[in-house]
Amino acid sequence: MQTIRQIVLLRSAIAAFRAEGASVALVPTMGALHDGHMALIEAAKRDGRKVVASIFVNPRQFGPNEDLARYPRREGTDSQMLTKAGCDLLWAPGVEEMYPDGFATNISVTGVSDGLDGAARPGHFDGVATVVAKLFNQVRPDVALFGEKDFQQLAVIRRMVLDLDFGIEIIGVPTQREDDGLARSSRNIYLDESERARAVALPRALGVAAREIERGGEVATALASAHDMLAAAGFEVDYVSLVDAETLDENPAPDRPLRLLAAARIGTTRLIDNIAVDLRNHP
């Protein structure tokens, strides 16, 4: 696996892939890789695609009181995992390569980015959209893969790709989970033993609420019950919301694909999760 840190060398490497007639898949990450990321790499390798993984801890998507300074950085271990998984190229630029002096552009995707995490973390999705647009222009992939755990992020990227005519296929890969149901996340390493044991309340609360809604229960009651389950486990809840799976409208039509999303903090660690809800075949 090649490791490249300069755009000019990246462009040469991508040109070499293209000269072989290969299509290119991009898996953007912030490192601290886990089995969820490896599922993205595995999906990216299908159909003989050349796989480019990026590792860049993007300062523009962290708020002033968030965990940029302590976000886990372990490129050596990550590189070994990517090599073992069959990744072809690691794009690992520094901040100065991504945001050189004088950088002044910001991409804002309104609508899908306004509520939920957009409201809880002002400016977060502008930072995500800007860095992903740069990655797309740097790598120029045919497809890019993102985990469904960050469901609002996925919706923002899909909207941006459509609006800006990137011509890139965006593939969402199902959330990878631990044996007890907790969504795999780089931030799980922040959890102490007690917090980790209680964190499983997040997927369980979503599962209970989703089943209740699908059985015809009142949405508001199901969401309130999920909020109470999380609070009882020691979470400070940012939101639990049922939304349209495409537009993220928080007043969705029942004949549309729906998604139940939640974000909550346990100790100093903020976790997010989501689950599909389908009312189309239910009374």
UniProtKB/TrEMBL annotation:
(R)-pantoate binds at residues 61, 153. It catalyses: (R)-pantoate + beta-alanine + ATP = (R)-pantothenate + AMP + diphosphate + H(+). Keywords: ATP-binding, Cytoplasm, Ligase, Nucleotide-binding, Pantothenate biosynthesis. InterPro entries: Pantoate_ligase, Pantoate_ligase_C, Rossmann-like_a/b/a_fold. It comes from the Bacteria. The keyword Nucleotidyltransferase does not apply. Its EC number is 6.3.2.1. It is an enzyme of class 6 (ligase). Transmembrane segments: none annotated. One of its GO terms (molecular function) is ligase activity. Catalyzes the condensation of pantoate with beta-alanine in an ATP-dependent reaction via a pantoyl-adenylate intermediate. Homodimer. PANTHER family: CYTIDYLATE KINASE/PANTOATE-BETA-ALANINE LIGASE, PANTOATE--BETA-ALANINE LIGASE. This is Pantothenate synthetase.
